[in-house]
Amino acid sequence: MATRTFLKACLFWLVSISPAWAAQDLVPVRIGVFDNPPIVTAAPGRLPEGIAIDVIRSVAEREGWNVTYVPDSFDNLLSRLDKGDIDLLAVIAYSDERAQRFQFSKESLISNWGMVFRNAGVPIDSLPDLKGKRVALMRSGTHTQALIELSRQFDAPFTPVYVDNFPQVLAAIAERRADAGVVNRVFAAVHAHQPDVVATGIVFNPIFVHYAAPKHANPALLHALDRDLAALRADPDSIYYASLRRWLEASSTEPYVWWLPWAAAAGGGLLILALAIAGFLRYQVRRQTGELQRRADMLQVEIRQREEAQQHLNQLAYFDGLTKLPNREGFRIALDQTLAAMHGTHERLALLFIDIDRLKNINDGLGHGAGDLLLQQVALRLQSVLRAHDHLSRFGGDEFVVIVSEIVRSSDAELVATRLLNSLAMPIDIGSTQIYSSASVGIALYPDDATSVEALLKHADTAMYQAKEQGGNRFLFYQAQQTARVVERLTLDTRLRQALERDELLLHYQPIVELGSGRIVGVEALLRWDDPDQGLVMPGAFISAAEDTGLIVPLGEWVLEAGCEQLRAWQKQGRAGQLTLAVNISTRQFEGGRLVKSVAQALARTGLAAECLELEITENVMLIMNDEVRSALDSLRSMGVRLSLDDFGTGYSSLGYLKQLPFHALKVDQSFVRRIPGEAGDTQIVTTILALAKGLEMQVIAEGIETREQYDFLRDHGCEFGQGYLMSRPQPADRLAELLDRKGMTGPA
After folding, report:
1. 214 φ, ψ to 5°?
2. Beta-ladder partners of 116
3. Burial of residue 540 (number of CB atoms within 10 Å: 0-12, 13-18, 19+)
4. Which residues of 416-434 are buried (b: 16+ CB within 10 A; e: fewer)?
5. Distance CA 625, CA 651 (A)
6. Cis peptide bond N-terminal to 38, omega within 30
7. What Cα–Cα distance (Å) separates residue 10 from each residue in 57, 85, 107, 254, 510?
8. What pLDDT shows up at residue 748?
9. Residue 456: left (phi > 0), alpha (psi -120 to 50), or beta?
10. So what's the pLDDT on residue 649?
11. Would strands 348-356 and 439-446 be described as parallel, antiparallel, or unpaired?
12. Which has fewest Cβ within 10 Å: 36, 252, 690, 737?
C-alpha cells in the first residue's frame, strides 16, 4: 500500500511539472519553502521535498492546485507572507504574536520543540551554562525568541550567531563558529548526529508546526488544506504516515522489486527464478517485519508526544507562569500529600503565609511590568533561603505560601520566617530602579492550630493580616484571639457602610491660624462617626479599615461635599470671609481619575469657589506617582484648588518630585512639633523644613501646637500658619460658628 501511495505521489509530481497547457484549469498556488529538513528540504536547483511537501502534493491533487514553490530564507518568507507575495508558507510554528499577523491552519502538521546542541569541546549542561557563550540561532525562529527570553529570566545572556536555517546551525557548531545552537527535535532526530555536535539536556518551548496564509487572504486554501490533512491523519495508510516513516527514519524510498521477474526471465533458468522468488519472499517477510516495527515505533512516538502534552498541561494547571513556582492547586496537592504522610505520627509542620508589602504602590508607580519583575526576584530570594524539603508556592497576586516540614519546636518555624524576611532586606534592581521590598508573614502550626488544609491556611492568613496591621516587615504566630479581631474588622466594615447610608457621619472643624496675627484663616474638616451604640467614634478607629476595603473613596467624597456645603453656608451668613476649607484626601481617591471628577462635582453642587478649597494629600502619593496622578494634580491646580502635602517628613517624599509638583504648602507633622523646642533633633528637622519651604516658595502649616513655647518658636522661625489644641480643639459646625463670630480673636486661646 505504501508503495502504491508513493508511486501515486510521484505521478502527480510529474504532472505538476508538465507544460502550462496541462494545468490551465488548475488553481495557481504559490508556496514559500525554506530548508528545514526533514519537514522541508529546499536544496538549490532541486524541487523541494519533505513531510510538508508530501502533504501539499496530496492536497494539491485532491483540490486541483497548480503549485509553484518559492524558495527563500525563513525571515524573507515572513515578509513575503505579510505582503501577500506568496499564498501559503509550508512550515511555521504557531504563536499568539504570529496569529496577529497571519492565518494559521487549524490542523497542525507535526508537534515539535526546541533542543540545544553544543560543540563536543564546550561544557554546557544547563541553561545558565549558556552565559557568555556564542549560540547559533535561526533568524525569526520561534525557538530563537523563546531561548532569548529564557536566558533573560535565568540571567544567562549569550551572544547570538544568526543563520538562515537549521543545517547552518549545526555547521556553525561543528566549525566552532558557535559554542552551541538551537534546532527543533524533528530536524535533530535525523540530522544531528555529527561527531563534533553533542545534544544537551536543554529542551524547551513545545510548539506545533502549521501552514500559514496572509492575514487578509481568502481562507479557502487553508480550509481545503485542513479538510484534507484531517482526512490524511485519520487514515493510517495515507501518504501522511508514509511520509513520516520515510523522512523521520531518514530512509530512502522503497526499493523497486519489479526487476526480479525480468531478471529471472533474462537468466532463463528455473533455478535462478526459484532462488529469486525465495529471496523475494524473504524480503517481503523482512519488509513486513520492518513495517510492524515501524508501526510500533510510531506508536511509541505518539505516546511520548501525548505524555509531553500532558506534562505541559500539568505545568499550566499546577505551576505559576510568572515565577515558575507551584500555584494554588500545586500547593494544595503538596500540603495534602505532606499531611497524609504525617497522619498517625507525632510530627509537626508550619504553614507560612507571606504577603509582599506595598506591591500595589509599585504597580501603580512603575507599572505592572515592574511589579512582575519584583515578584520574580522575590520568588528567587525566598527559594534561596529555604531548605531542600521545604515547599514554596505562589498563592496568587503578591502572596506566597511556604510549607515548613520536619520541625520540632515553633522556634524552627521562627528561624525560617526570619531568613525569609532577611532575604528581602537588600534592594532589588528593577531595570535602572532599585526597590526596597519587605513582607508580612503569618505562621500557623500543625497540629497545634489546626489539622485541616483549609483551617491551617485560614489561620496563617489571619496571622499575616495582623502582622500587616502592625506595619509589615515582621512575622506573627497565629493566636485564637486573632480570629476574633478579623471578625470584628469585618463587622466594622459592614457597620461603617451602614453608617454612610444612615447619615451617621458628621464633620468637626479645627481652625487654622495665622501665627503672626492670630487670625483664623481656614478650617480643616475632620470626620467623626456618631455611632448609636458607641457614641462619637474618632477616625483612628475606622479609617484604616476603610482604606483596606476601598470604602475610603465614598467616605472621602462625602467629606468633600459636606465640608464645601458647610463653608458655603458660612459664607452666605457672612461668617467665613476669606476662610479656606482643608480636606484630607486618600491616595485611593486618585484611582481611575475619580478625584478630579468628585472635586469638580462638589464645587459645582455647592457653589463654593475653587480657591477656597485646599486638599491635604499625604506623602504616600509619591509611591503611586505616575502620569495619571501627576495629571490629576495639575488639573486640580489649574481649577484653582490649593494643594498641601500632609504629614511632611514622615513618609516617602522625593525632593525631585517636590519641586516639580503643584503643591502650595507643606504641613509639618505633629510628631515633630510635639518635641520642640526642647528636643534638638526635632528642632533641627522643623527648621530645615521651614528653610526648604522658603526656598521652594511654599507656605508651611504646623500641626499639633499645644504649648505657648511651640507657638512662639514656630512663629519666630518663619512658620506662617498652625493649628492645634492651644488655639482650638476640633469643634462641631455650630460651635465653630460661634468662634467665627468673635471677630476680635487674636493669638492663641
Report:
1. -55, 155
2. 182
3. exposed
4. bbeebbebbeeebebeeee
5. 14
6. yes
7. 9, 28, 24, 13, 96
8. 53
9. alpha
10. 65
11. antiparallel
12. 252
Intervals of the chain under pLDDT 50: 1-23, 250-267, 744-747
Upper half-sphere CA count for residue 137 (Cβ side, 13 Å): 19
The CB-side HSE value for 322 (13 A sphere, CA atoms) comes to 20
- Which pLDDT score is estimated for 623? 65
Please give the full DSSP string across 158-198, using - where no structure is assigned.
Answer: -EEEEESSHHHHHHHHHTTS-SEEEEEHHHHHHH---TTEE
Give the integer Cα–Cα distance in Å for 702 and 166. 72
Q: How far apart are CA 575 and CA 584, in angstroms?
A: 23
pLDDT of residue 305: 65
The SS3 assignment for 718 reads coil
- How far apart (Å, rounded) are the C-alpha atoms in residues 161 and 44? 23
Identity of residue 380: L
| Residue in the block written with cell 515539535 | 112
Which helix (DSSP H) or strand (DSSP E) does residue 512 occupy?
strand 505-514
With beta carbons less than 8 A apart as the criterion, state whether 534 and 499 touch: no
Predicted local distance difference test score (pLDDT) of residue 269? 52
Task: Report the alpha-carbon angle 339-342-348, nearest 5.
Answer: 90
In angstroms and rounded to an integer, the radius of gyration of the C-alpha atoms of the chain is: 38
Q: In angstroms, rounded to a whole number, what is the distance separating the alpha carbons of residues 138 and 187? A: 13
φ/ψ of 196, rounded to 5, equals -90, 0
> What are φ and ψ of residue 590, in 5° steps?
-80, -20
**CA atoms of 226 and 104, how far apart (whole Å):** 10
Query: In the structure grid, which three cell numbers stand for residue 31, read together?
Result: 508556496
Residue 404, beta-bridge partner list: 350
115/442 Cα distance (integer angstroms): 43
* pLDDT value, residue 599: 95
